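testing teh design pipeline on a random one, pls ignore if ur not involved
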């Protein structure tokens, strides 16, 4: 219910709260949230772009107004981390589809950095370079599990539950199933 979502959000904080708000507010899968890059956030048009979602499809989603300020502040903090990484000779991001060969210096570009980067640098097993990967899914999953318990929600709930709640609450608000299908990135209505 909407009330349970509010209680859940009040039991989360920091980047985990922001991640949950984005998954709920945009109907994102956990993997789509984790793979967001800075260039996928369009404050000018209030959009969040999902690139290569399930089925290798792209889609654009309205950014909820309620998270805009928090997301802007989060990105300012993340930019400071990126600048520090650059200053010590790192700051590389893993690029999709051999883009590092096409654009050799793009891996240090601010736009390619993860919106939710990991706390520590790590070695990329493919290239051998030291990079900052995105947050590991288990961290947000653990935070959600604890928040569900702390919020007193007695139903089973996970990150994916936020996606289902997004769709359910849109239906309850009178949006058509076709609109919801597109927002969720589903190929078929029955999905």
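output:
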């Amino acid at each position: 219910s909407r009330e349970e979502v509010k209680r859940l959000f009040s039991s989360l904080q920091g980047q985990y709260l922001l991640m949950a708000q984005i998954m709920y507010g945009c109907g994102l899968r956990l993997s789509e949230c984790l793979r967001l890059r800075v260039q996928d956030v369009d404050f000018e048009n209030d959009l969040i772009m999902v690139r290569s979602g399930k089925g290798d499809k792209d889609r654009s989603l309205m950014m909820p107004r309620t998270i805009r300020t928090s997301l802007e502040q989060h990105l300012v903090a993340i930019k400071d981390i990126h600048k520090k990484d650059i200053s010590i000779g790192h700051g590389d991001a893993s690029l999709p589809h051999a883009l590092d060969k096409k654009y050799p210096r793009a891996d240090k570009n601010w736009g390619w950095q993860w919106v939710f980067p990991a706390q520590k640098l790590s070695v990329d097993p493919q290239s051998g370079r030291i990079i900052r990967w995105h947050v590991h899914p288990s961290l947000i999953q653990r935070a959600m599990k604890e928040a569900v318990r702390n919020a007193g929600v007695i139903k089973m709930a996970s990150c994916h539950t936020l996606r289902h709640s997004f769709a359910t609450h849109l239906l309850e608000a009178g949006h058509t199933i076709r609109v919801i299908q597109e927002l969720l990135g589903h190929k078929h209505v029955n999905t």
